[in-house]
């Protein structure tokens, strides 16, 4: 179907279903090409629906076999069945059972939605609408049913897993066997899952706060068992944390995680049976970086936390997706903050928000955290729903305070457990718990676009007052030309030029608790008893998802960098200064001049490294990591020339690397670790800084850096050091680079997940030969477009992480990615559609590149056939 023909689904059209399905009994006979599914549904008319309506069940590419009503075969005129629909024309108006038999082909399922095979393992993915590819159903999140699943398979598929608790298992004739799973908790169809395979596992017993024993296990492909231990440990830490911080206990007798190699997304929170992209499960010192370990910990926790925020309380409709995703991302961010360094985690999360969500919010794909209309729901699993959705929970917590926030969460769990809820119902719990009117706050869910917050300050030395005026605007976004002011909690402080934190005194107590709430277009506040000229530290901890325009000089910012007591703003101050310097360098290059780097920044970084590098290396690594090209592009905003940005940024790094050469070389030695590898935050911080130091050192002195990188590569005892060195080497064209790439390949040739790093690194090299290199790698034996991880590693990295080459002046980068999208689309529209969002900032490019991007998008849009997924993205991108 083409998107222009696809119906628009609107929030205001929501209607309850005409029928309810109380129980679902499934019998699934696994077979590689002809899997038989018999679904017995216990239905009854919904008192809230239309009496006497026909019953229309969703399907998608299903082969209908037979249907029976209350045990008797249905007459031919009683129903119609097509691959997309099963309609029972005149359903009984009292409870009845409908039994439908269908047939599906898991081996031919390249879309990886519904039941498919990953390296021989049967697995499922049902969110958002994959269950209808297994059997006909009311496939929407507000239909909650109790499931019993009987799985039958040949004995060469010994492991049979389902949702809930194991109920029964045994042998059958003819080399077959079966297992029955029963899930007592009513759930929507998108949380259904089964797995069938021959897998290895690690397991443990987790004792809940109330003393119940839960068998927890992680299943992986044979030979990878040892690499699953970290995930199993992370799971148990997450289970404990949710008890301690949110009072949430696990509710089944077992919790299983299965890692598969072919998966469209990161992971899926199916009740009691999470299915994971193996990238977010498998880890060892030799194959995973510190970041991989941190991501595994976060994703394992995220999916586990869904058990309450998503599963026990689910979403009424897909417009409420942020109800489970934004909230659960917030919860996993908090978990990681408690497990590691809170400020460093905050900085990392804000980097993700700015690089993934801000461009979305500023471009043609902008949409509110709770959209009001969609054509293809799979395209709304976005950074806006997830990352900005999490920021809104943080804003809410700041507005009502920590205690009221926890009380509101308790109320939400108590009131809505076992139901499909809405954002309004969620917010009402916090309004009730805090006694506050939160109607203005709820605008955050409705209005797209990132608010721009401007701050202007004036110090009156004679009166010892400081007058601060905050104002906000939000630019128009598609379908929302007019914007209203948002409720923005601005956490703030005043830092004196002498470096000390000044007290916040106002006549009306406007900034009690260090937070000033801006809820109109503008607000002015006067601080009294300000004994010295202050530098305001605003939006501390990034207290709201806004873009901050400051009237501070570089020197003011360097005061914050040196003295701010808020670590986030300390980091931010250095980033802002560096951004300004690079933007000025871009302007200078455009005007035919040369790049100037003021000595102030180099000096300030030097002092900082002396004082903090060894004390807080993880934080220092964030400071040393300069704004990326995409950050600079976002700051410039329009007429972007990626080559100019790249050249300017490189020159600034070169200058800093030279100015700090002595310190960097010394630090590089000091940061070496003697102890055996551990992925813990302390060691990971040291390695992150050491690799950052190596990068900057090499920017300033290529020959010296290259020699160090080469030695680090050869001596590395873990993936973080090895890949860190290889990244540095990859930037220097020549034989050393090619030899290192070859050595890396030889070492890991049988390890697909590690080869993804090898593909991604090569696709990210910012030089003219990279496009040819990527094209060559397409036919590498280890590459396959049918595996989403491989595609994301090679093509995704080229399109999303290599601005100069994707946006080449000759348009060849755009044309290449368009070709791949068109090639991939018939087999896997979801991954193709994700890839096509790489074009989302095309309108900000300079005219030549813009024209090439538009031509590529128009070529995709004109292709037939084209999936609804891709058509939806390119049509909106072109609008
Ligand atoms: Zn999630």
| Number of distinct helices | 26
Integer-rounded radius of gyration: 28 Å
Helical content stands at 40-55%
Shape: globular
Instruction: List ligands, each type once.
Output: zinc ion
Determine the strand fraction and express it as a percent band: 15-25%
* Helix-strand makeup class: alpha+beta
Average of pLDDT: 97
Written description of the protein model:
The chain contains 26 helices and 32 strands. The relative contact order is 0.07. α2 (290-305) packs across α3 (321-339), α3 packs antiparallel against α4 and α15 (681-700) runs parallel beside α17. The two termini are 20 Å apart. It is α+β, with helices and mostly antiparallel strands and 879 residues long. It binds zinc ion (ZN). Zinc ion is lined by residues 302, 306, 325, 328.
Keywords summarizing the entry:
single chain, 879 residues, alpha+beta, 5-stranded mixed sheet, 26 helices, binds zinc ion
């Amino acid at each position: 179907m083409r998107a222009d023909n696809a119906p628009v689904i609107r929030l205001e059209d929501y209607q309850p279903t005409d029928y309810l399905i109380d129980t679902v009994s499934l019998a699934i006979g696994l077979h590689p090409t002809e899997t038989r599914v018999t679904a017995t549904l216990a239905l009854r008319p919904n008192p809230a629906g239309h009496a006497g309506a026909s019953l229309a069940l969703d399907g998608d590419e299903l082969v209908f076999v037979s249907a029976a009503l209350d045990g008797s075969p249905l007459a031919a005129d009683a129903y119609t069945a097509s691959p997309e629909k099963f309609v029972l024309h005149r359903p009984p108006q009292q409870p009845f059972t409908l039994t439908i038999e269908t047939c599906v082909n898991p081996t031919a399922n390249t879309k990886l939605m519904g039941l498919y095979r990953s390296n021989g393992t049967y697995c499922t993915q049902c969110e958002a609408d994959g269950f209808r590819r297994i059997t006909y159903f009311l496939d929407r999140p507000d239909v909650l049913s109790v499931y019993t699943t009987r799985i039958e398979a040949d004995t060469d598929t010994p492991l049979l897993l389902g949702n809930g608790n194991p109920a029964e298992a045994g042998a059958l004739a003819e080399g077959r066997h079966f297992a029955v799973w029963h899930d007592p908790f009513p759930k929507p169809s998108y949380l259904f899952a089964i797995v069938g395979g021959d897998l290895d596992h690690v397991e443990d017993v987790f004792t809940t706060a109330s003393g119940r024993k839960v068998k927890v296990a992680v299943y992986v492909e044979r030979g990878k068992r040892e690499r699953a231990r970290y995930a199993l440990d992370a799971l148990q830490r997450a289970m404990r944390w949710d008890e301690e911080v949110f009072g949430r206990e696990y509710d089944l007798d077992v919790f299983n995680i299965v890692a598969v190699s072919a998966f469209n997304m990161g992971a899926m929170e199916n009740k009691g049976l999470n299915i994971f992209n193996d990238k977010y499960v498998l880890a060892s010192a030799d194959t995973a970086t510190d970041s991989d370990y941190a991501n595994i910990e976060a994703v394992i926790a995220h999916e586990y936390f869904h058990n309450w925020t998503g599963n026990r309380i689910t979403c009424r409709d897909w417009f409420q997706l942020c109800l489970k995703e934004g909230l659960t991302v917030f919860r996993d961010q908090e978990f990681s903050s408690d497990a590691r360094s809170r400020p460093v985690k905050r900085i990392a999360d804000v980097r993700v928000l700015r690089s993934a969500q801000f461009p979305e919010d500023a471009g043609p794909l902008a949409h509110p955290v709770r959209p009001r209309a969609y054509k293809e729901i799979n395209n709304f699993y976005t950074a806006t729903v997830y990352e900005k959705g999490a920021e809104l929970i943080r804003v809410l917590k700041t507005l009502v305070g920590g205690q009221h926030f926890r009380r509101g969460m308790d109320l939400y769990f108590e009131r809505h457990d076992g139901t499909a809820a809405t954002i309004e119902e969620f917010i009402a719990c916090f309004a009730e718990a805090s006694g506050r009117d939160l109607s203005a706050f709820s605008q955050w869910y409705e209005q797209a676009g990132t608010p721009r917050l401007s701050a202007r300050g004036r110090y009156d030395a004679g009166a010892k007052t400081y007058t601060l005026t905050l104002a906000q605007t939000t630019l128009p976004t598609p379908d929302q030309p007019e914007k209203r002011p948002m409720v923005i909690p601005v956490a703030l402080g005043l830092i004196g030029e002498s470096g000390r934190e000044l007290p916040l005194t106002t006549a009306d107590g406007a900034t009690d608790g260090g937070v000033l709430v801006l809820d109109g277009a503008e607000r002015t506040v006067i601080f009294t008893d300000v004994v010295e000229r202050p530098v305001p530290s605003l939006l501390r901890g990034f207290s709201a998802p806004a873009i901050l325009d400051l009237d501070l000089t570089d020197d003011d910012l360097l005061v914050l960098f040196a003295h701010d007591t808020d670590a986030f703003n300390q980091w931010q101050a250095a980033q802002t200064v560096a951004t300004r310097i690079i933007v000025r360098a871009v302007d200078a290059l455009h005007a035919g001049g040369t790049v100037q780097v003021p000595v102030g920044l180099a000096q300030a970084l030097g002092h900082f490294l002396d004082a903090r590098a060894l004390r807080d290396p993880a934080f220092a690594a964030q400071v040393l990591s300069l704004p990326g090209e995409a950050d600079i592009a976002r700051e410039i905003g329009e007429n972007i020339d990626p080559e100019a940005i790249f050249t300017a940024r490189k020159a600034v790094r070169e200058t800093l690397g030279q100015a700090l050469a002595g310190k960097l070389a010394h630090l590089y030695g000091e940061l070496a670790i003697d102890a055996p590898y551990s992925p813990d935050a302390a060691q990971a911080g040291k390695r992150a800084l050491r690799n950052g130091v190596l990068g900057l050192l090499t920017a300033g002195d290529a020959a010296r850096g290259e020699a160090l990188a080469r030695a680090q590569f050869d001596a590395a005892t873990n993936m973080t050091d090895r890949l860190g060195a290889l990244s540095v080497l990859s930037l220097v064209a020549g034989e050393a680079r090619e030899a290192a790439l070859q050595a890396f390949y030889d070492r890991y040739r049988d390890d697909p997940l590690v080869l993804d790093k090898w593909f991604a690194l090569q696709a990210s090299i910012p030089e003219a030969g990279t496009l040819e290199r990527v094209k060559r790698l397409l036919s590498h034996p280890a590459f396959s477009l049918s595996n989403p991880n491989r595609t994301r590693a090679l093509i995704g990295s080229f399109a999303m992480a290599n601005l100069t080459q994707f946006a080449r002046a000759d348009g060849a980068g755009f044309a290449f990615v368009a070709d791949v999208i068109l090639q991939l689309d018939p087999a896997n529209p979801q991954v193709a559609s994700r890839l096509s969002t790489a074009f989302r900032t095309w309108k900000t490019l300079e005219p030549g590149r813009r024209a090439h991007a538009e031509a590529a998008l128009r070529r995709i849009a004109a292709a037939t056939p084209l999936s609804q997924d891709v058509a939806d993205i390119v049509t909106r991108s072109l609008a």
